[in-house]
From TrEMBL:
The chain crosses the membrane at residues 7-29, 99-120. It comes from Pseudoalteromonas denitrificans DSM 6059. InterPro entries: 2C_sensor_his_kinase, HATPase_C_sf, HATPase_dom, His_kinase_dom, HisK_dim/P_dom, HisK_dim/P_sf, Sig_transdc_His_kin-like_C. SUPFAM superfamilies: ATPase domain of HSP90 chaperone/DNA topoisomerase II/histidine kinase, Homodimeric domain of signal transducing histidine kinase. The lineage of its organism: Bacteria, Pseudomonadati, Pseudomonadota, Gammaproteobacteria, Alteromonadales. This is histidine kinase.
Length: 376
């Protein structure tokens, strides 16, 4: 959630809580005034005031010395009688007075609410940033620890793989001296040639293995460039479809994805898709035709997904989590070191995205999520 949204939600909530009671009280004002006037204004009171005025007139004639005092009382009684005779006038006066104070209070509450909302929104936004930064740091640490654990596992595997060819090399070389001393030159020559063949074969295996690990360790940091993801996928299929003669590609682009842009390193992301497709082709070498579909869709307002389906051999659900491990491989060939999908995962993570393997009944599916570029 962005800071602007947080501010809007907080301001709206505080204004609603502050203004709602005032609006409710104003709506109830008419009922309150009507009930109050009904309690005060009664016909008996009006008659008493009329009698009081008549009495004041009589007193004015009988007591000329206090005429001024009687006159003031008479005017007061007349004003009060006017109010009792015209209750709507009283109601209007009270409404106008209440409205004046109401508007002053309303404006004061509104300003106070706005200031409070702005202050709180800044506090919440700042806390949200701190929390997000903390979560990002924790995620980065976890990712680093995962990478460290994986490298420990792969280092152990690498040491094991290096030690395997060293044993026959050591035995063959140490046996040469004994063969030279105890056999004829012809036998020694044969033993020397055998040793050379074994050493050459084992060195080839070592060089091939180291080459695979070197490919993974030398992955460069991505150099991002903005592009429309739909156009990128269209171009990728057009440029690479001839590399896999038995693969039939289809591209499905959802309507809302047509103009969505992402930041990617074209060379690295090409390698990412090539590894996924190559992995599918190698897993289905007996298939005369392999159908691979790329489906682009919006996962949410901030992420876009590329789902890669093939109709070949399904992936067991128990392997969907370990398939991206650096030392994992379902292929039995010695040349394969299980780094293809590990490279894919690293590239996607370096792009700020994520990749998962989905277990489906027919075929295999990979789902890549990438953050959408936000135009500022």
């Amino acid at each position: 959630m962005r800071n602007k949204q947080i501010n809007i939600y907080l301001i709206g909530a505080i204004l609603t809580l502050a203004v709602s009671p005032l609006l409710a009280s104003y709506w109830l004002l008419g009922e309150v005034l009507h009930s109050a006037i009904a309690l005060v204004v009664k016909p008996d009171t009006q008659q008493l005031l009329r009698n009081y005025r008549d009495d004041l007139k009589t007193l004015k004639r009988l007591d000329p010395d206090n005429q001024k005092e009687y006159k003031v009382r008479f005017l007061q009684a007349t004003d009060e009688l006017l109010i009792y005779e015209k209750p709507q006038l009283l109601k209007k006066i009270l409404q106008d007075t209440y409205l004046t104070y109401y508007l002053v209070l309303f404006i004061a509450v509104l300003l106070l609410s706005l200031l409070t909302a702005i202050w709180l929104s800044h506090k919440v936004a700042r806390s949200y940033k701190v929390l997000s930064a903390s979560d990002v740091k924790k995620a980065e640490k976890i990712q680093e620890l995962v990478y460290f654990d994986e490298w420990q596992a792969i280092a152990s595997k690498l040491a094991h793989e290096i030690n395997n060819p060293l044993t026959p090399i050591e035995m063959m070389v140490s046996n040469l001296s004994r063969t030279y001393e105890n056999t004829t030159p012809k036998v020694f020559e044969e033993s020397l040639n055998d040793t050379k063949d074994v050493v050459s074969e084992e060195i080839y295996k070592l060089k091939n293995m180291v080459s695979h690990f070197s490919q993974f360790s030398k992955l460069p940091m991505p150099v991002f460039k903005s592009c429309e993801i739909a156009q990128y996928c269209t171009t990728f299929i057009r440029q690479h479809q001839n590399a896999w003669p038995n693969v039939v590609f289809t591209l499905e682009i959802k309507a809302q994805v047509s103009n969505v842009s992402v930041d990617i390193d074209h060379l690295l992301f090409n390698q990412c898709l090539i590894n996924v497709i190559t992995n599918a082709v190698q897993a289905n070498q007996e298939s005369e035709q392999l159908n691979i579909s790329l489906i682009l869709s919006l996962e949410n307002e901030s992420d876009i997904t590329i789902e890669i389906f093939n109709d070949g051999m399904p992936i067991d659900i128990s392997n969907t989590e370990v398939i991206f491990k650096m030392h994992y491989s379902s292929k039995s060939t010695k040349e394969n070191m299980g780094l293809g999908l590990a490279i894919v995962r690293k590239i996607v993570l370096d792009h700020g995205g994520n990749i998962i393997c989905r277990s489906i009944l027919e075929g295999a599916a990979f789902k890549i999520s990438l953050p959408i570029k936000i135009n500022k």
